[in-house]
Each structure stands twice: as structure tokens, then as C-alpha cells.
Write a structure and sequence with these properties.
Layout (H helix, E strand, L loop, with lengths): L1 H34 L13 E8 L2 E7 L6 H18 L4 E17 L3 E17 L2 E17 L3 E16 L7 E2 H6 L6
Antiparallel strand pairs: 1-2, 2-6, 3-6, 3-7, 4-5
Length: 189
């Protein structure tokens, strides 16, 4: 009888786990879908993006920060794109890159360590009662297993690019044409 109770408990807990997994899997899928892609071209937000800081009337520092799925080259291209857009937004046609720098922000994530202990026990007691005497004998077995999981360390690398630009109305040697830069990105939209 005890074995049948254990079987029913196992079956019930397995069904509960299955019901929980039916709820968890869509949530995990949504998270992967939202955050499992490189940072797109958009203003700075939760997953990265571009921003700028005006440091003089015609001078800006443009920043693009990617997520762990964005490579350094893409971060630089997006910063250059934003520089060209900013040039046009401010009424200029040309810009000069005064300086630029790119680096990677590294962060580390350790998964939680979990321990799972399973214990099985079985007891049998036998006895007889007769004429005022009672004799009992039996045996008992117990098996306990503990497994540990997790504790893995993952490195996340997020590229970041800064470009300092000066804006110009008229063309001169060494200046970049904002319209030409932007024409390279029209295909990506």
C-alpha cells in the first residue's frame, strides 16, 4: 500500500510540475524574444541605444551602447549614423569627427546554486502475537541522494562607442557629408 501511495504522490507532483512548466515556458520564450537580439537603432533605453550631449554650439558627443548581442562594429556604425542624423536635425550638412573611442563594458553573472535532495525509505515490520508473548522483527532501508546544480559564471560584454563631432554648414577638406552617411543606412530600415 505504501508503494502505491508513493506512486500517486509522484504522479501528482509530476502533473503539477507539468502545469507549472506550461505557464513558465511562454514567459521564458517572451524574454528570449525581447532580449535575445542585438540592440536596434533607437534612443537609449533599457537595452541600449544612442544619446548625445551638446558641449558647444556646434559640437556634440554622440554615444551608442549595445547589449551583449551587439558587436563593436555595429555600435560604431550606429554612432556614426546618429552623428549624421544629428547634423541634419541641427540644420547642418557636414560634420567632422574630432575624436572617437570604443570599449566594452564587461559584467559577470553567476547562476544560483541549488541543491535537490531525494530520500526514499522502506520499512517492514513483522510480528506474531500468541499466548501473551509478542515477537516483532523487521528491516528498514533508506536511500538519500543530493545533487547540486548551478554556480556557472557568464560574462556579458556590451560595446560602447563615443564620437565627438563638430558641425559645419559648408564643405571643406576632411568633412563628412551627412546625407552620404545616411544613404548607407536607408537599406537597413
Amino acid at each position: 500500500m505504501e508503494e502505491s501511495i508513493i506512486k500517486w504522490r509522484t504522479l501528482i507532483s509530476t502533473r503539477k510540475l507539468g502545469e507549472k512548466m506550461k505557464k513558465i515556458i511562454p514567459i521564458i520564450s517572451l524574454i528570449i524574444m525581447l532580449f535575445g537580439c542585438s540592440t536596434g537603432y533607437h534612443p537609449d533605453g533599457l537595452t541600449g541605444g544612442f544619446s548625445e550631449l551638446q558641449v558647444a554650439n556646434d559640437t556634440y558627443v554622440v554615444k551608442f551602447q549595445g547589449n551583449a548581442y551587439t558587436n563593436m562594429d555595429q555600435a560604431f556604425k550606429y554612432a556614426l549614423r546618429r552623428s549624421a542624423e544629428l547634423t541634419r536635425e541641427k540644420g547642418y550638412k557636414y560634420f567632422k569627427v574630432i575624436s572617437s573611442s570604443s570599449n566594452v563594458n564587461r559584467s559577470f553573472y553567476r547562476t544560483p546554486v541549488t541543491a535537490n535532495t531525494t530520500s526514499n525509505s522502506r520499512s517492514s515490520i513483522y510480528g506474531n502475537y500468541g499466548y501473551g508473548n509478542y515477537n516483532a522483527y523487521g528491516n528498514s532501508t533508506r536511500n538519500t541522494t543530493t545533487t547540486f546544480s548551478g554556480g556557472d559564471v557568464y560574462t556579458m560584454e556590451k560595446p560602447i562607442t563615443y564620437i565627438a563631432i563638430k558641425l559645419y554648414k559648408d564643405n571643406a577638406n576632411g568633412l563628412l557629408d551627412a546625407d552620404i552617411i545616411l544613404s548607407n543606412f536607408k537599406k537597413e530600415n
